[in-house]
Amino acid sequence: MQQLLYIGIAGFFGALARYLLSGWTTSVVDGRFPLGTMTVNVLGSLFLGFLYTLSVERLVLPPELKVALTVGFLGAFTTFSTFSLETYNLIREGSIFLSIVNIILNMSLGLAAVIAGVSAAKILYGGQ
Fold this sequence. Notes:
This protein has 128 residues and is mainly alpha-helical.
């Protein structure tokens, strides 16, 4: 039961972080492209790769902290369902090119961010 509480608290902060960062990014870049969602997805991927590598290869994180950060915070922070809806709306509006760009950038930058997070953790804390 305590683990669920940790996940919920971390999820609360992850959702707030997503809302604030996505909103700020959208306000800075005026346009139809959903850059705010992509930003949180890429950063979430980076952080998840980093935390995963640290917890598996270097640091022994308490299980409660690991689950709170990955499932709670990052689960609420990343926005794959929003990405899917925004892509659908781009297609529905006839912006096929932007929808394809959105898919390619989110997927490739998300994967690159996970790789960068894994690499950063290995560089900072040693590892293969």
